[in-house]
Amino acid sequence: MAQETLQNFLSSLSDALKNANTETSKDKSHQGVITSYKDGVIKIEGLSGLQMNEIVTVEGLDTQALVMNLEQNAVFALVIQQSLELREGLFVKSTGQFLSIPVSEEIIGRAVDPLGNPLDGKGEIKKDKMMPHEASAPGVMVRKSVHEPLQTGIIAIDALVPVGRGQRELIIGDRQTGKTTIALDTINNQKGQDMICIYVAIGQRETKTAQVIEKLRETGAMDYTIIVSAPAASSAVLQYLAPYAGAAIAEYFMAQGKHALIIYDDLSKHAVAYREMSLLLRRPPGREAYPGD
User: Fold this and answer.
1) CA gyration radius for the chain?
2) What pLDDT is attached to residue 24?
């Protein structure tokens, strides 16, 4: 009897040790350590199973980083929220999630950053759904052809080079030639057209973005407009993410059967941010269909 009891005890102890070893190995596989931190880029070692564009968190800090480079023995990630306490030797955990932005109907009329944080001091925005910054686009065969016009309100453009809903259009011009004015006139002209407008300000001066918001408020266009701002003072990572955040918000309304107009102002500054980011990650800069380097 005593021998059976001893065998049962040894068996249960063996099972407990096996489970403990399994849990420890699982924890280790989802935990790494920061071995280098320079210019907003952290090098992580010991963290396996990561995917491109995955979010990792630094333990003990409210800091997230975006995985951008996967190498054989290390991972390089861009820090999204800067912290003075971030340093080498801290542990990093994988989340298994990709970068996304909280969206709801309440975001209309508001100004947010590329992570969905409000910038206008009007309080938190209720979250209805998390929209991924990068989602697979519908295939060409399932898309409807461009058949409905988008009126800019400028007769010369609407008559000579009409823009359709579902179409992309590039506005090219030198400085102070009125590129932003055309975009704002187009937003103002969407009043009563059942159109949600998103103005993405990339690398702009905050005073300029404030002037744009004030102009839209004066004409009543802020009732159907959302501002996504990554000002010049923000990091290259946030400026890089701004257009994706605007597209994610637009896709939320598109999924509801609504029309959406996105203005990117401007993509040249986005190219500069992408170049800066690429150089920090030791990648070849400006070689992946981004505007000139």
Assistant:
1) 24
2) 41
